[in-house]
Amino acid sequence: MSLHFLHIVEWGSYLVLNRLVQRESVWVCLSAHAKVWHLYNDHFRPFQGGQVSIALSSHWIKPQTMTEQDIQECQKSLDFVLGWFAKPIFIDGDYPESMKSNLSSLLPEFSDAEKKYIKGTADFFALSFGATLSFQLLDSQMKFHQLESLSLRQLLYWISCEYNKPKIFIVENSWFVSGSTKRDDAKYIYYLKKFIMETLKAIRYDEVDVFGYTVWSLMDGFEWHRGYSIRRGLFYVDFQSHDKKFLPKSSALFYQKLIERNGFPPLPENQPIDGRFPCDFAWGIVDNYIQVDTTPTQFLDTNVYMWDVHHTKKLIKVDGVATPKRKHHCVDFAAIRLQISLLQEIHVTHFHFSLKWSLILPLGNLSQINHTFLHYYQCFVSELLRVNITPVVALWQPMAENQGLPVVLAKYGAWENPETVQAFVEYAKLCFKSLGHHVKFWITMNEPYVGNLTYSAGHNLLKAHAKAWHLYDKEFRRFQKGKISIALQADWVEPACPFSKNDQEVADRVLEFDIGWLAEPIFGNGDYPHVMREWLHQRNSIDLYNFHLPYFSEEEKKLIQGSFDFLALSHYTTILVDWEKEDALKYDHYLQVQMIKDITWLNSPSRAAVVPWGLRKMLKWVKSKYGDVPVYITANGIDDDQNMVQDKLRVYYIQNYINEALKGKESISTYLYPRVGIHQPNSQQGFLINIYPQSSFTYYLNISLFVFCSHPLLFLYQGSATFQN
User: Fold this and answer.
1) Nearest CA-CA partner of 488 in 624, 556, 394
2) Does 326 reside within a domain?
3) What is the largest CA-CA distance in the chain?
């Protein structure tokens, strides 16, 4: 074999600067390295044609604050760890100035001849960036009170700038997983993916001359001070077995595929497409709750006043004088006009919001009806229709306070109490009577699944939905000609390891528990998913759990099955699941599932991942499970930095998720609702119940004492153009 591409790495040099290590040892190492390099250069290079360097390990550090002092401290940290070796070799044969000024006489000096001899004794920059040497064994003093970072890309760019753009060979890079992890090492895959992707970005975007990459290591082994408590190999080794077989892990398969593709080629299914939605496709916006402001207009006051302009500056009522009393009109609610004008600006065709059950029926029954609030809702939906915006109204949505229920119902068990079912049906009937002539799209329950919803509560909730649906179907549909269904949250669940059957089984299980729990009885066979019953039976049999999934009678199954006119889904993000336990804080013992993060994914401030293709995968799954059911995406969106007027993250999110919807338009009937709620006066911008606690709104508020102005965010302009086209 030709030796033209031979690379010889002399040794991996890493010495921690502390009282126990003599500075002279580094001086000796550098001198020895230089002599070996000159030896090869003078006697072997002409015939062997190889290259020689020294492998240097480094961390990366970022400033606590973007002040000049902290930035200088970061420079000092890198000088003391990497520059100690790199500057003499790659720059001028001498130590960094920050070291010389801080250590003074403690640092050995090079003679001019030695500097000349050491300078340039590397044919490439051999870099090691890994868990143990770069970070875990790093003396805390070497951080200079700054923050460690795993940004390989930034380190590569710094090396390129600091050392005159050398050719860089990454001779060691990886992270680690728990020693208990066997062959499905999904977490290790995503670390590899991050580091290799950052290397590619450094090459393509930062023009860093990186010509090679090496993963540590081939097989599991003894890892420095961590011993066998962690694993970093591509091949699994059972240290307790006699034969110590080497078995390829998922990370080995990932690395193999990556090498075959020579990187991350764009996949056809992930490429954006051009095109138009069907002509009758509806564009809308969803808000959890509209701001109900029933403050009466001044024109309803029949009294006449004088302004005491010279003394008290107040209005003084004139006794005995009154104007004719007039009827109450919808235009008297000033807040309605403002909210609807904002919707008109965006050119949406539909607006989806939830009623507040507790406002309309404070006692939870018909004994006390708040006609003022009911009239406000009547005015709101009629004004929407007046400007050609179709209202889509949800009867109930869970919220932090009393689960969104009237206080009395919440006090006596909420959905655990079967009486809440009948109370909901009475409430639904009132809403159908009062609003049904204006509302043609009803949602019985909007995203009813919450983390603490018990199986018995969900059981009653399904019966309440079904009874409300049949009530509308029998008594109101013929005259009002509307549609009604339930809206379920449907985030996609992806196997963390694409090569693992176990991960696929876990993902399927989580989807059934998250979506199928409430979807299967309505859109499927009238009962809970078989996967749920089997799993709960298995978990209960080991006497660690006692989860009772109720049974429906045959009559109840018939009542619930088919109680829909469409399938309404809200979708926000995608999560990764793994069957191997890695992080106890993110492990669900009940479902035996480990939540994993792909650290290369874009994330919102609340750490929700932006994964557009998850929407299309979810739509395909729904179609495969429930057939050609009309699908309505009733909510989709993400939070953004609440301090940013130009909400670029949300613009990116909406554009790409809409594009995925366009690819899967055969799976969607007509609806797409970006979850970017209309602003709420006198409330903070970022309040969105149970979904994203920060800014998910289209309008940025600037509230003063008497007047508030709404500044449209970047999404308004780009989203409006999308809707118009």
Assistant:
1) 394
2) no
3) 116
Instruction: Pick the last residue of a domain from 680, 699, 718.
Output: 680
Give domain status of residue 228, yes or no.
yes
Answer yes or no: do 241 and 292 share one domain.
Answer: no
Report the share of the chain in percent with pLDDT over 90. Answer: 62
Same domain, 211 and 290: no
Handedness of CA 27, 28, 33, 34 (dihedral sign): positive
pTM of the model: 0.84
**In terms of residue numbers, what domain contains 171?**
7-270
Could you report the per-residue pLDDT of 307-347, keeping only the tens digit for each?
887 778 788 888 877 777 766 678 778 788 888 998 999 89
- Cβ–Cβ < 8 Å for 703, 710: no
Q: Are residues 199 and 293 in the same domain?
A: no
Residue 323, in any domain of the structure: no
Please name which of 576, 573, 410, 432 lies closest in space to residue 493, comparing C-alpha atoms: 576
Size (the chain), residues: 725
Q: Are 652 and 506 within one domain?
A: yes
Within this chain, do residues 553 and 494 fall inside the same structural domain, yes or no?
Answer: yes
Tell me: the pLDDT tens digits for 69-107?
999 999 999 999 999 999 999 999 999 999 999 887 778
User: Do residues 287 and 204 share a domain?
Assistant: no
Residue 379 lies in a domain: yes
Average pLDDT over residues 619-635: 92
> Do residue 233 and residue 290 come from a single domain?
no
Q: Report how far apart the first and last C-alpha atoms of the chain are (Å, whole number).
A: 61
Which residues touch 39 (CB under 8 Å, ≥6 apart)? none
209: Cβ–Cβ under 8 A, 6 or more apart, which residues? 160, 165, 166, 167, 168, 203
pLDDT in tens, 232-288: 999 999 888 888 889 999 999 999 999 999 999 987 777 888 888 888 888 889 887
pLDDT in the model for residue 535 = 95
- What DSSP string runs through 645-661? SS-HHHHHHHHHHHHHH
223 lies in the same domain as 288: no
Tell the burial category of 477 from Cβ atoms under 10 Å away from its Cβ (0-12, 13-18, 19+): middle
> What is the pLDDT, as a whole number, of residue 311?
79
Inter-CA distances, 645 with 344, 637, 653, Å: 20, 17, 16
Asked which of 680, 695, 713 is the last residue of a domain, the reply is 680
Q: What is d(CA 345, CA 676) in angstroms, rounded to the nearest whole number?
A: 14
For residue 256, give the CATH number of its domain. Answer: 3.20.20.80
Number of domains in the chain: 2
Cα(564)–Cα(488) distance, integer angstroms: 12
Answer yes or no: are the C-beta atoms of 135 and 176 closer than 8 Å: no
Helices (H) and strands (E) in the chain, counts: 24, 29
* Residue 318: its H or E element: strand 315-322
